Amino acid sequence: MAQAIKRQSSAPTSPVIPARKAAQSHFRMLRLGTPFQPRIDALARTNDWYNWAGYRAPHSLWDEELEYFAIRSQAALFDISPMTKYRIEGKDAEAFLNRVTLRDVTKLKAGRVHYTAWCDDEGFVLDDGTLFRLSPTRFRLCSQERHLPWLLDSALGFNVTVEEETEAVAGLALQGPTSFAVLRDAGFAGVERLKIFDLAEFVHDDGTVIISRTGFTGDLGYELFVPAEQALSLWDRLMAAGELRGIRAIGYTALNRARLEAGLIVANADFVTSEHAVRPDRLRMPDEIGLGFMIDLEKGHFNGRRAILEARAKHRLRHVLVGLEIEGNIPAEHAIVYHRKGKEVGLVSAAVWSPMAKRNIAIASLARPFGDTMVDDLWVEIYAMRELQYQKLMKRAKVVPRPFIKLGRRTANPPADF
Predict the structure, then answer these.
(1) Cα three-residue angle 50-52-56, rounded to 5 degrees
(2) How far apart (Å, rounded) are the C-alpha atoms in residues 112 and 84?
(3) Max intra-chain CA distance, the chain
(4) How far apart are CA 178 and CA 161, in angstroms?
């Protein structure tokens, strides 16, 4: 039988303050803080924040350009605590997750992680995320959006417990060529044995920290998960160990540039999740956003299976997500894609000039057959600011494979020691 453990707030009761001061405090307050917020606030120079699932998160902390180069040449520390996290455990945990996600969970061994996605009954993608198998009967599912009611409804009939642990578990991404050396110097003995998508527990303070060799940058990197009360000590341990290795805290703008170079997609940025889509033509099946490789038809029934197979058989897949290389050096963010400069065939969802690839790159959703069987004579419409006036530029686009860059150090075993 499915069970849920309700989250309880541990926040202290707020003191009574006059209404006028309360209003002023309200406008000064910028959303929730993560367990690492005191350290992040102390480093913030740009005061450039955004809302990540209700939390105050930095677009940048000191310089978005240099923060990007910290990822590619040093070690970059990024707070991933606002990422939604679920603990799923019990006798039927494997069977339950195999039922709701696309990939075959029976092939995911304890101490391993895989990237997966899950769909509604019509085969449209609800979200994508990472599934950590902590033990034979205990998992952690991380995602962009919140899905607790859906998970609980789907768990009926399974002997499994589903609990959201977003607030209880703090997370950090440590990415870049010196990330392994930082962890080793921080005293995490044996971390060199982690291969790509491995995870293990390590001693930290009076408890443990889970470290996985995963990340969102296409670079050598790790993600660390620790109880919220031990977050600051973990941060301090990493920063002290990484001082001579050039460790720097970064914001999302730099991370977003790196993930785009790696060809990775973001829910509700590169595709609209089915729970958020208002218009039917915004819904996407896994094959339409490059996630068809996840579908394992040899396993038993899973959410959306019948609809996905029918769409494949009857050629109802309407869209394709592609990588584009665009002439020039002006990013084509949210540009319209045309065929032969006249027919509108899609939209760019993310774009950047890549310092690593030395190319103007983008991810775009195109209407089939464009981007699928028809890839010639594609153009993007860019509006560039020139001397206080926008100028329309039509630039040629070419469909290219993702990732746009491929770094050998990401999968090197043992990890590179820079």
Answers:
(1) 55
(2) 19
(3) 66
(4) 38
What pLDDT does residue 30 have? 54
Last residue of a domain, one of 136, 164, 192: 164
- Which residues on adjacent β-strands are paired with residue 75? 247
Give dist(CA 398, CA 62) in Å, integer: 35
Encoded amino acid at 145, one letter:
E
Q: What contacts 327, CB < 8 A, 6 or more positions away?
A: 360, 395, 396, 397
**Are 214 and 237 in the same domain?**
yes
How many whole angstroms separate alpha carbon 412 and alpha carbon 204?
Answer: 26
Asked if the structure places residue 12 within a domain, the reply is: no
The residue range of the domain holding 160 is 84-164
Strands (E), 190-318: 199-204, 207-212, 221-227, 247-249
| Cβ atoms of 61 and 251 closer than 8 Å | yes
Residue 31: per-residue pLDDT: 79
- Residue 223 labeled ligand binder: yes
Question: 164, 180, 215 — which closes off a domain?
Answer: 164
Residue 34 lies in a domain: yes
| pLDDT at residue 29 in the model | 53
The number of distinct structural domains making up the chain is 3
**Residue numbers in the chain where pLDDT is lower than 70:** 1-30
Instruction: State yes or no: cis peptide before 38, omega within 30 of 0.
Output: no
Mark whether 202 and 248 lie in a shared domain: yes
pLDDT in tens, 372-398: 999 999 999 999 988 899 999 999 999
Report residue 91 as tokens. Answer: 């006798």
Query: CA-CA distances (angstroms) from residue 148 to 86, 88, 134, 266?
Result: 8, 11, 20, 20
For residue 388, the domain's CATH number is 2.40.30.110
**Based on the domain organization, do 340 and 352 belong to the same domain?**
yes
Judge if 223 and 158 occupy the same domain: no
**Given this model, what pLDDT does residue 333 score?**
94
